[in-house]
Amino acid sequence: MKQPLIKDLQEQVSRRFEQIPAYVPIEPFEVIAERVGRSPEQIIKLDANENPYGLAPQAKKALADLRWGNIYPDPESRALRQAIAAYMGVPVEHIVAGAGADELIDLILRVILRPNDSVLVAPPTFGMYAFDARINGGQALEIPRNRDFSLNLEEMRRVVRDNKPSAILLASPNNPDGGMLTPLELEEILGWGILVVLDEAYIEFSDGGQLGEQASQIHQPLKRDNLVVLRTFSKWAGLAGLRVGFGVFPQWMLPVLWKVKQPYNVSVAASAAAIASLQDLTCLIERVQKIRSERVRLYQLLAQIDWLEPIPSQANFILCRVKGRSAKAVKAELMKKGIFVRYFDTPLLQNFIRVSVGLPQHHDVLFQALKEMEEEHL
């Protein structure tokens, strides 16, 4: 009796997920180092938009002094949410913390999607939006961006009218091109009456204030019941390996989010490091400013390579159109030299590479490698 039941389950699971493309994450230092026969210290990792400066000093100290690692964390992340509220000037009751913004994207879609409901996304963009929609039983309606990576608002408006998706998921700055959503664009989209999930993972690197505060829409969910704004500590605070982020939500969403959320989703270590980071803002602001300055220099270096066309960015990465040669081959050749950049094997990005902003010496080595490839006519 047991064998047919498990066989039926196997077939059901296979049918449910066989058409969903897997999300391809970036591999860690030790894995890529072993593949190319180098030590992790010899790797120049410019493929995942990580902060090259690492944790702030106070965050390191908080982890070194960590107590109660044997005790479950606060299911409401109260201390963390209070620290975020004080930093952002947002009421604490509107904040939900998560294991990175990724968990919150999944949580939102788990809450709003019924079987075969849809969300609207604008590729090329962060692949987790479509991925999470599909694994939560929904569909992703994809309206490609224009050649300059701006939104095709006319087509998006038509799809919202005709298909009535449950939400639109947008990033500002957008990943992978680093372009910003303008206030007028956001206002128009909000006017369509659809839930908008705005991912501000890279907003701190924009030119709108010391940490992007002038460009952020973080206070708008208090006024707009169809807007959610997500943030993360992964990029600007260098906590990518600890997984901690948060969202600011309209009032109506909060009761169900608290009901559905995993109770111990933010670890003691992640919470301690994030709180300490908010107490070390002088250091982090200085690092963000260095990354912004180095982004300008990196753009100038990439623009000197005849077969690369860098795209202006407001994030901590630069997308480059590769002209007259294979972007995949460029990535492979750089990898042989211990330099890792991001190549997206997707129809909209097959002739692009994305380069994260690293340390100045990283960019010097990258530039020299690209010049050598230019001379070798790869």
TrEMBL record:
Listed GO MF terms: histidinol-phosphate transaminase activity; pyridoxal phosphate binding
The protein, known as: Histidinol-phosphate aminotransferase
Pfam short name (any one): Aminotran_1_2
Catalytic activity: L-histidinol phosphate + 2-oxoglutarate = 3-(imidazol-4-yl)-2-oxopropyl phosphate + L-glutamate
Family: Belongs to the class-II pyridoxal-phosphate-dependent aminotransferase family. Histidinol-phosphate aminotransferase subfamily.
Cofactor(s) of this protein: pyridoxal 5'-phosphate
Pathway note: Amino-acid biosynthesis; L-histidine biosynthesis; L-histidine from 5-phospho-alpha-D-ribose 1-diphosphate: step 7/9
InterPro entries, alphabetized: Aminotransferase_I/II_large, HisP_aminotrans, PyrdxlP-dep_Trfase, PyrdxlP-dep_Trfase_major, PyrdxlP-dep_Trfase_small
Gene source species: Bellilinea caldifistulae
UniProt GO BP: L-histidine biosynthetic process
EC numbers: 2.6.1.9
Keywords of this entry: Amino-acid biosynthesis, Aminotransferase, Histidine biosynthesis, Pyridoxal phosphate, Transferase
Ribonucleoprotein among keywords: no
Complex and partners: Homodimer.
Domain named Aminotransferase class I/classII large: residues: 42-360
N6-(pyridoxal phosphate)lysine modified-residue sites: 235
First-level EC class: transferase
UniProt superkingdom: Bacteria
